[in-house]
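Predict both folds.
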Amino acid sequence: MSKILILDDESVQQEIELEERQLVIGRDASNGIHLDDPSVSRRHAMLTCALGEYFIEDLGSTNGTFLNDRPITKHMLNHGDLLQVGDLVLKYQKVVEQEEVVDDDPEKTQVISRPRPHKSPDAGVVVPKIATIRYFRGPKKGQSEQILRSLYTLGKPGGDVAVIARRPQGFFLLRIGNNSFPMINNKKVDVGGGIKLNEGDVVEVGENIVEISFTG
């Protein structure tokens, strides 16, 4: 599984395996990741896992949370990302396959992710369609965009944020962090675990209202 490495002068002081969907990082001993340092707030930041991807969210900390030297409010993590929490530096390692983890240390044996055999649609694999969202309300009102990447963000950092995740089974809506619940077809829903979107669904996230459609 994925890991957080607590670094000291680039050497690893502690490894923490990420097993839960949400983990709070902070100075309070009850947190999932306890950092006993006065520069760290009691509840400094939170890690959230959504469909295998981890996101970092600052919880209004005093000194802020930095991702690769840039201040962030909410952001998805990639393998090798460096997080600064107060005066401490943490490194995120992402699992490649089962318990195999990519390692950047050139002195260690590199784990090579084995490619999975290609399966045709006839083998039962659902091929994702092309999704298009059309904005009815919000800063992008009147615009349409295709979802070409694996994660598409609705909303903005500091406000209500959700993600549309592109998966082999289709497109799923996920809520990021502890912001208010989004709405699908005028119904408030808890999408923490991911809800599959259907043709014509209208999604409301904060000030944004969009309609999703599929082609291909």
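Second protein follows, with its predicted structure tokens after the sequence.
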Amino acid sequence: MTKLLYLECTSGISGDMCAAALIDAGASEQAVREALESLPVEGFSVEITRVVKSGLDVCDFKVVLDAAHENHDHDMAYLHGHSRGHEHDCNHEQGHGHEFGGAHPHAHEHAHAHGRHHSHGHEHHHRGPAQIAEIIDGAAMTEGAKAIARRIFDHVAAAEARAHGVPLEQVHFHEVGAVDSVADIVAIAVAVDDLSCDGVVVTDLPCGWGTVRCQHGLIPVPAPATAFIAEAAGLPLAPVDVEGELVTPTGAAVAAALRTQDALPERFAIKAIGMGAGKRAYDTPGILRAMIIEPLG
């Protein structure tokens, strides 16, 4: 019987939102934790908790960075250019500053969880595609999950190379290659593989407006890497009147790597629902829903 994963991105999509929604929809939290614990990466721990978002009880997936890797993705004034402070990486999810291109989001409450809490300098802030591949290959996850993770990073790498006008092998990831994004993408890959769906539905992605700060200054929304991923993968965008980055580069890469169809079946039954919380305060519910659905004849 056909089983589809539907990512309902009305509030956008980022790495942490997606990881949380998939776990909430039934993906093995244990498998996700084991993969994250095995990563040959330092400087983080992971919290998987419950949080109230727009009055709803939702899952929150949070990568907690040590002092050497921390960024300011949740400082909304700074993120959108209204104040000065530390410079962000050009890659953020609905919550992390941009480092070399994209985007990233997070938020949470009740708690149990941990990954590894290490703390070694800044050697992990610049990684190339080869280093990312080594991290994925060294993780304790299935070959299917590794293939999904590679596809997601391939979309990001190609977009970043194009955005910065450099050959693919010369791309150096800051935000996307940093520990938080590695953890997000590995968690998503493991969760998707564990759910074992026959296809993934991703409909229109909301396109906010304005600017967001990256390592090189303010850049337009959608971020260049996000726009290039959408162009290359044919992702449909729908303008919405929300100032802010709703779809991060990582979120766009996840949609591009997973999507097998862009429209829901005419009739379907919902078998499971997961809701993941975003970390940034925008004029949206800030929730990504992941639904396991079964098409009806």
